[in-house]
Amino acid sequence: MSNRVLMKGNEVIAEAAVRAGCRHYFGYPITPQTEVMHYMATRMAEVNGTMLQAESEVAAINMVYGAAAAGARVMTTSSSPGISLKQEGISYIAGAELPAVVVNVVRSGPGLGGILPAQGDYFQATKGGGHGDYRNIVLAPASIQELYELTVEAFNLSDRYRMLTMILGDGALGQMMEPVEFRDVEPIENVAKPWALTGRKGRSEHNTVTSIYIEADVMEAFNNKLQAKYAKVTENEIRVECVDCEEPEIILTAFGLVSRICRNVMQLAAKEGIKVGLIRPITLWPFPSQTYAEIAAKPSVKAFLDLELNCGQMVEDVRLAVNGAKPVHFHGRTGGNLPTQHEILEHIRTLAGRNA
Amino acid sequence: MQDVSIVIAGFGGQGILSAGKFIATAALLEGREVSWFPSYGPEMRGGTANCSVVISDLPIGSPVINDADVLIVMNGPSLDRFISHVKPGGLVIVDSSLVLNIPDRKDISLYRIPASTLAVEAGNITFAIIYLLGCLAKQSGCIQRESFEAALTDALPTRHHHLIPKEMAVFDIGGTFLNEN
User: Fold this and answer.
1) β-sheet bridge partners, residue B39
2) Which of A125, A193, A187 is nearest to A161 (CA)?
3) What is the pLDDT of residue A1?
4) Maximum distance among all alpha carbons in chain A?
5) Smallest Cα distance from A142 to chain B, Å
6) CA A26 → CA A23, A45, A137, A353, B30, distances in Å?
7) Using a CB-CB distance cutoff of 8 angstroms, which residues of chain A are in contact with residue B63?
């Protein structure tokens, strides 16, 4: 009998954060992620932490900013419209080089949109969202077990690089239940935070956390420093899963839940004699461009088919990575709809020239 | 044991989502892989509710079911909506107290159980879904009786545990119905 328990994705996010040493959670309710806050309300009380329902998303992200500046492990969660509201704070957190974890349980948009699952926030998460030249580490889990592991890892990555790490989930991942097996001891990296605002404590100089640099040269030097850090993250932290990519004819590529629909389709395609591989980026930023380039160079590969719950966002990064070596096609669904296995298989048949 | 994909659908308040959780928990207790995927949205009591449960011995690909092995329905609109998603040879279990339409497919096994009527007679309307789950367990073999009982203990709050012996009796009755196709 294993110690696996059946839990909702949203609850797993909260439990993982607590296990990772997060003792400060600030949020504002929004479907489909409100269970994170429900769970935190009980759980934070048990561990003498803070769960605070802020007066708005803007307030919540600024509370995150403050707690992070004080060196605490801190998290906020929301869904698409709420994440839009947090963008100013996210940019400031990047500008102040603070570690924090933000979870976006994505729903369909734009605008108030709908509450069903979507991936339309890929651009926002990976290309900025807020103002200025900054990056977030963006992690895209595909199962509840991985949601747990990546949430813990998000805190480590944030501390290691003094960066905001975003978990980009979706409404389905937040709402569904799967077994999760928690570790006895979490691999928490205890990174020293000598920069944190904890009082002078005998130091001759007080610490300053800021994102304002009025002088052009000072601002530019700071931007260069950020870019050097982002280059280091790109060098060290890319994660990607490749399935059956040895000698495929068609490469599917998808992140999160959609990648799992792809796995079923791969079995259906195999029965028809079509060799299909899958590239699943786990880090959406930094993006696993090299992996795409290497697989695109394989003579067996005829085409790529990128699948997303949006109108074509990650596909731009895929095309940059493939760089014209092979055609990259796109198949998207929106509004909360998910692609069926049949429609994906039909698209594969066409690309493989197997349609009568 | 093959993968089993189960769609349960009906009105909000009938225990549709809970039923899925009982099955998923039972399968988990048997050490199998499982996913539970709910309909969610502006749902309310009396509105529609459905969930998809996949049970497998291997890691589960999609938790989203396009072709179901089993359909359990507790209202007419859900039968109309999901009947075409059942695989040929699939199992369809309906609460015939509430679902008056009869599917015109002959390539499925059909079990019609007057579950809501029986449940009222047994003194608790919430038992209705348990008759249907008893039929599911008996006809598909996807979960064992013991693990279902353990799942009830696991999933139900302690204040409801006194109902479990009665629920198991109902579960057993659910397994006695015969194929109507």
Assistant:
1) none
2) A193
3) 44
4) 79
5) 10
6) 10, 14, 20, 52, 38
7) 172, 176, 178, 257, 260
Report the run of H or E that residue A24 belongs to, with start and end: strand A24-27
Contact between A305 and A251 (Cβ < 8 Å): yes
**If interface means Cβ-Cβ distance under 8 Å, which residues of chain B face chain A?**
21, 24-25, 28-29, 31, 33-38, 40-42, 60-64, 66
Nearest to A69 by CA among A57, A61, A77: A61
* Kind and range of the H or E run holding A94: helix A87-95
CA of A170 to nearest chain B CA: how many angstroms apart?
Answer: 13
CATH code for the structural domain at A241-351: 3.40.50.920
No. of helices (H) and no. of strands (E), chain B: 6, 6
Instruction: Name the residue among A6, A176, A257 with its Cβ closest to that of B28.
Output: A6
Inform me whether the C-beta atom of residue A343 falls under 8 Å from chain B C-beta atoms: no
Query: Do the Cβ atoms of A267 and B37 come within 8 Å?
Result: no
The reply to whether residue B41 touches residue A264, judged by beta carbons under 8 angstroms, is no
Instruction: Supply the ipTM of this predicted assembly.
Output: 0.93
- Confidence at residue B80, expressed as pLDDT on a 0 to 100 scale: 95
Instruction: State chain A's mean pLDDT as an integer.
Output: 97
Residues of chain A with CATH 3.40.50.920: 241-351
Q: How far apart are CA B112 and CA A270, in angstroms?
A: 38
Look up residue B162 and give its DSSP letter: G
Q: What is the pLDDT of residues B74-119, one digit of tens each?
A: 999 999 999 999 999 999 999 999 999 999 999 999 999 999 999 9
| Rounded distance between C-alpha atoms, residue A28 and residue A25, angstroms | 10
Q: What pLDDT digit, counting tens, does each position of A95-105 carry?
A: 999 999 999 99
Q: What is the pLDDT of residues A32-44, one digit of tens each?
A: 999 999 999 999 9
pTM of the predicted structure, to 2 decimals? 0.95
B21–A179: do the CB atoms touch at under 8 Å?
A: no
A32, B40: Cβ pair inside 8 Å? yes
Residues 100-119, chain A, touching B (beta carbon < 8 A)? 115-116
d(CA A63, CA A52): 9
> Which among A175, A257, A340 has the least Cβ separation from residue B40?
A175
Residues of chain B with pLDDT under 50: 1
Residue A284: its H or E element: strand A283-285
> What CATH architecture applies to the domain A4-236?
3-Layer(aba) Sandwich (3.40)
Query: Domain B4-174 - what CATH class?
Result: alpha beta
